[in-house]
Structures are given as structure tokens and as C-alpha cells.
Amino acid sequence: MDQLKNLTATFPDAAKDLKLNLTSVLGDGTSALSEQQRFGIALACSFAARNEALKSAIMSDAERVLDEAWIDDAKAAAALMSMNNVYYRFRHMIGKSEYAALPARLRMSRLASPQTSKLDFELMCIAVSAINGCEMCVRSHEKSLLELGSNEVQVHDAVRIAAVVFAAAVSLELEPAAAGDL
């Protein structure tokens, strides 16, 4: 995790805890997730967090454990959830049965046919959905994960990664010049 270590060195003092948390959630030997799952989730979350320096560092470190299928699924999870989270969050916020009765007509075939596994893709999707704040999607992905044989500890670990990656992106924006020093 050389690139992430270099990047966290640029975090301002206000984000000291994030330096430790980022290293912990990605390198944590106590996680219920595999190393590929942790880095796949982190990569998808870095795309959702939209911080170029963070995305670049995670991608660089992730490439040692992730193949092209994982990287492509991380991109697909971030892209699809950015669409779904907006749409389903709207339907949930409005709460009108008229909207709920209308078909979404949004193509989401990648959800059914990821390049990795359905479980791994769902882990990435729930993490991105947590970042985007879509309750309906988070509930749906959690249900799918449990049906696929995952457990609450794995779901919890995926969302912990999402929380820390998003907070790292925010930390890098606290003092933008620091991130440009790399």
C-alpha cells in the first residue's frame, strides 16, 4: 500500500485518524473480507468519492491484487449505483405510489452478470450506495448479499471501507494544495 501511504502523509492534522483507518480497513487481517474484496470495494468507492488523487492511489495499490475483471466491476458498480441511487432515492423521498408504480426503464443488466461474482459485485454496490445515501438501494443490496450467503459482518466491513474511503476524499479536500504535492 505504498501509494496510499504516500497519500495519507499529505492528510492534514485534522484527519489524523483517517490515516490509520484507511490502512486498517484495507490491510486488516481481522476483516471478514478477502484482500480482493477489500480493494475492489475501496476502488469502487474511490470512483464514487470522485477524488482523483485518492482514486489514483487506490488503483495503483489495488492493481497488485485485482485483475481487469475486478477493476471493471468496480467501475461498473460506481457507475450503475450513481444512476440507481439518484433514481431510487427520489422515489423513496417522494413516497408517492404513483412513482413507485412506474417502471424504472433503466438498464442494469450488469447487476445480473458481473465479471467477478454476484456476491463481490453486490458488496461493491452496497458500499457505493451507502456513500450515495440511498436507503432503498442499501436495503436491497443487503438483502441480496444475505441471500447469496454473505453475512452481516461482511456487509458491515464493506460499509466501513466505504465510510473511510469517502472520509479520505473529504480529508484531501480540507487542504487541496497538500494533495497536489504528490
Write the layout of secondary structure elements.
Elements: H1 2-8, H2 16-27, H3 35-49, H4 52-62, H5 68-94, H6 97-101, H7 109-112, H8 118-132, H9 135-147, H10 152-174, H11 176-179
Helix pairs in contact: 1-4, 2-10, 3-4, 3-5, 3-8, 3-10, 5-8, 8-9, 8-10
Low-confidence stretches: none
**How would the global form be characterised?**
globular
- End-to-end distance, in Å? 15 Å
Average pLDDT for all residues: 93
Number of helices: 11
Beta-strand residue percentage: under 5%
What's the Cα radius of gyration? 16 Å
Biggest sheet architecture = none
H/E element string?
HHHHHHHHHHH
- Overall SS class: mainly alpha
Would you mind describing this structure in some detail?
- With 182 residues, the chain is mainly α.
- The chain is built from eleven helices and no strands.
- The protein has helices spanning 2-8, 16-27, 35-49, 52-62, 68-94, 97-101, 109-112, 118-132, 135-147, 152-174, 176-179.
- The mean pLDDT is 93.
